[in-house]
Amino acid sequence: MAVTALKPGYTGQNLDAVENFGPNQLVYLHWEKHLMFCAALAFPFPPEMPFGAIVGEVLPQFYGPHPDFEKIDWSTVRWTLDGEDFVPDLEASIGSQGVGHKSMLRFWTPGLDGLGDSGA
Amino acid sequence: MAKKIPLKRKYEMMTRGLAWDTTYQDMDDVYPYDKFEGIKIHDWDAWEDPFRLTQDAYWKYQAEKERKLYAVIDSFAQNNGQLGLSDARYLGALKLFLTGVSPLEYQAHRHFAHLARNIRGTGAQVAAQMQSIDELRHAQTQIHAISHYNKYFDGLHDFTHMHDRVWYLSVPKSFFDDAVSAGPFEFFTAISFSFEYVLTNLLFVPFMSGAAYNGDLATVTFGFSAQSDESRHMTLGLEVIKFLLEQDEANVPIIQHWIDKWFWRGHRLLSLVGMMMDYMLPKKIMSWKDAWEMYFEEQGGALFEDLARYGIRPPMHAEQANNEKHRISHEVWAIFYQYTHAAGFHTWDIDDEHKAWLSAEYPDTFDKYYRPRLDLWKQMAADGNRYYNMALPQLCQVCQIPMGFTEPDDPTTICFRSREYQGDRYHFCSDGCQYIFDHEPEKYIQAWLPVHQIFQGNCGGAEIPDVLNWYHLNLGVDNMAYEGSAEEKIWNDWMATRRVGAART
């Protein structure tokens, strides 16, 4: 039973279906061990956007205020996509490498664990 | 002279004596809502109202309370009671409380009226009827408080409009929408039992004591006036649960699930109160952690021992909630600190004295996990670069709070949970919220999540000023840093005038 309802067979409508977002899909990004940023961030990205735009433009704009950000060695960064290990292709589009609607991208920066290693 | 009717007899005459079973129409057609949840009631007459309150007595008591209450409120207004506050920062907590909770009082009024009409037990009908009127009274009183504070301070000018739109007000709003869109017995379990009985002390006691400590006489007076109503509501909550559990064994697992669900929903909602207690009251009463230990772990523990004989165990995620008492106020403050530019109240940098208090109250977590970011933010503000998070946060599909809560075994890692349902992904802040979704996905896929609605173009535009305009919030006036705000300035001016006045006399 997917809902307790007065009317038998009642169904709901997903308010966040991908077609409601025009040319975009929702993507969530999160930098691990840096909880100066209180939660993962949500973005409407077109699936054609190259992954490199996330690394080159989005992350510096929003995570740049953290003193660790400029110390990141991008060759050592570890990513997961929807809970699975993931090696992004910066040239290819996000859609072509499995980043779908409401996908969750988390990244770890080895050796950088926040302010005084506090995880913040 | 007519003989006085004994109370018990009078109660029977004024409740069951006024009711009848319909014969022209089938009772199930007249009362269509009280069976679909699967709850079985065999004997409505077993319903006991320990107060035995009848309508005639009710009106008399309430009228007396109203007279006293409005005498104090009038005197508060005439004597500029707002100048007696400990500090204008207190208003942050007050604004969040008044804009978050007052519309819920009104929702409760409406839904108890619905229950009074739609459950077929007369004792329960009368109790719901009175609670409906109580809730309307509470909503009115709080609106009077809003009206007074709105004359002097920012952010309270359009609370009904904001309740339907503003991102963090969707947290209390969706909580109550969930309850009122459930059946009558789930509503009773959600609001009367889980919220009003199990968790209400965590809302009202700290908030009313906080108001008293911080010179907010209007709120204290309201609290006293509501207190006798609240004790009646709490008693109703416990009576409903015991009645349902005694009526049929098949009710037990249904009630248990509702307790599991609404305990967690209430705990998430109260994380906002935790933030107010630990971060927003200029004069502290007790930490959230201490309040949780006293009002849930001790009092709630005794309650669930008592309910064990009915086959009820403590709420499923109670251990996780206990575990989170060291964290949630800090995690929620981090959210509001960095998104204060989109809120209806100010936040501020935490001074050394306040940090020392937090460190003493939270010896296991504060210095290790939370002090470093507070220090950095303060430094950034001192450098003229006060931190605001300019991206929008990921929200939990169920509680709708930004996903800032951490893994049960690791306060440095956000707790991410997700599910696929009919080809789409849904994200949750906790095992508790995921559990709620799993049980009724058709309900929660319909969530109106403010961040997603902004991205769909339904909230006035794509930029923060457009969205705030749509919220009816004034950017830079109602919100952002307290330091340098118009509210800080006017408060300091008033206090300076007072000191000059005091020096002259």
Q: How would you characterize the overall build of this protein?
A:
The complex is a heterodimer of chains A (120) and B (505). Chain A has 120 residues and is α+β, with helices and mostly antiparallel strands. Chain A is built from 1 helix and 5 strands, in the order E-E-H-E-E-E. A 5-stranded mixed β-sheet of chain A has the order 2-1-5-3-4, with no helix packed on it. Chain B has one domain: Ribonucleotide Reductase, subunit A (Orthogonal Bundle), CATH 1.10.620. In chain B, the strands form 2 sheets. A two-stranded antiparallel sheet of chain B has the order 2-3. In chain B, a hairpin with a 2-residue loop joins strand 4 (417-421) and strand 5. The interface between A and B is large, with 51 and 63 residues.
In whole angstroms, the N-to-C terminal distance of chain A is 41 Å
Largest interface: A-B, 51 and 63 residues
> Roughly what is the average pLDDT of chain B, rounded to an integer?
94
Element order of chain A: H for helix, E for strand: EEHEEE
How do the strands of the widest beta sheet of chain B line up side by side?
A: 2-3
Q: Which strand order spans the largest sheet of chain A, edge to edge or round the barrel?
A: 2-1-5-3-4
User: Roughly what percent helix of chain A?
Assistant: 10-25%
Tally of separate domains of chain A: 1
CATH architecture of chain A: Roll
Strand content of chain B: under 5%
CATH C-level name of chain A: Alpha Beta
Distance between the termini of chain B: 64 Å
Average pLDDT across residues of chain A? 97
Strand content of chain A: 15-25%
* Silhouette of chain B: globular
Task: Reconstruct the topology from this structure.
The complex is a heterodimer of chains A (120) and B (505).
Chain A: E1 25-31, E2 41-45, H1 51-63, E3 78-81, E4 84-86, E5 103-108
Chain B: H1 7-14, H2 27-30, H3 55-78, H4 90-118, H5 122-150, H6 159-163, H7 170-180, H8 184-213, H9 217-247, H10 251-280, H11 288-307, H12 318-324, H13 328-338, H14 352-361, H15 366-382, E1 392-393, E2 406-407, E3 410-414, E4 417-421, E5 424-428, H16 431-439, H17 441-444, H18 450-455, H19 464-471, H20 486-504
Antiparallel strand pairs in B: 2-3, 4-5
Helix pairs in contact in B: 3-5, 3-9, 4-5, 4-7, 4-10, 5-9, 8-9, 8-10, 8-11, 10-13, 10-16
